[in-house]
Structure prediction request, 71 residues.
Amino acid sequence: VVLEAVVDTTGRVLAPSILIVSATHPGFVAAARQAVLATLFRPAMAAGKPVPMLVRIPYEFTIRNGMGRAR
Prediction:
């Protein structure tokens, strides 16, 4: 799953900004959204101050032996 989202000045993703760019299966989308919302990023900096930034984040899901995991 590839997502685009805005990371704010505190390093959190703004939930309304999340856009699904691509997904190999719709069943992976909810897990990718949940993962990106739970992640704390280092905010972008401009002139020494944190600024909001649009980022593209890929999530790769693997299913093995009936167990799924993301990385």
Observations:
- Helices lie at 29-38.
- Residues 29-38 form the longest helix (10 residues).
- The chain has one helix and seven strands.
